[in-house]
Amino acid sequence: MTDQKSIRLDKWLWAARFYKTRSIAKDAIEGGKVHYNGARTRPSRAVELEATIRLRVGWDEKTIIVQELSDQRRGAPEAQKLYQETEESVQKRQVAAQARKDMNQSILAPEKRPSKKQRRDILKIKHDYSDD
């Protein structure tokens, strides 16, 4: 970890391994997917200790508190020391993950693939609807 006074937000998010590259982190910040202390921010924002960052990565929305500063990307165990996720955030993510899992289980997959004749019929129906 480093004793620097100011580290850019995009660089810190990259070092904490939330995003694979700084440019992806920058795009997420500019796209409004990252909020610093409850407000939208710029990629050049200086990160401070005990700051609250809310970010969306894929399906997950995390709320974290900055514990340490670093501008170097290291291994995942060291990166996890840079922040602490709030309990509410962990619970929300678990509930959302369970809801996604339940939704996927309710979708019924076909028992078998359609036969050649059934595929022709499906294509004919699709073609008829596309002509309208």
Give start-end ranges of low-pLDDT stretches: none
State the total count of DSSP E strands: 5
Report the structural category. Answer: alpha+beta
Q: Radius of gyration from the CA trace?
A: 22 Å
Shape summary: elongated
Discrete helix count: 5
Order of helices and strands: HHEEEEHEHH
Helix content: 40-55%
In terms of DSSP E residues, the strand content is: 15-25%
In short:
This protein has 132 residues and is α+β, with helices and mostly antiparallel strands. Helix content is 42%, strand content 16%.
Please describe what this structure looks like.
By secondary structure, the protein is of the alpha+beta class. The protein is built from 5 helices and 5 strands, in the order ααββββαβαα. A 5-stranded antiparallel sheet has the order 2-1-3-4-5. A hairpin with a 2-residue loop joins β1 and β2 (39-40). The model has no long low-confidence stretch (mean pLDDT 91).
What is this structure's SSE topology?
Blueprint: H1 9-15, H2 22-30, E1 34-36, E2 39-40, E3 52-57, E4 60-66, H3 76-79, E5 83-85, H4 87-106, H5 116-131
Antiparallel strand pairs: 1-2, 1-3, 3-4, 4-5
Helix pairs in contact: 1-2
Q: What descriptive keywords fit this protein?
A:
single chain; 132 residues; alpha+beta; five-stranded antiparallel sheet; 5 helices; 5 strands; 16% strand
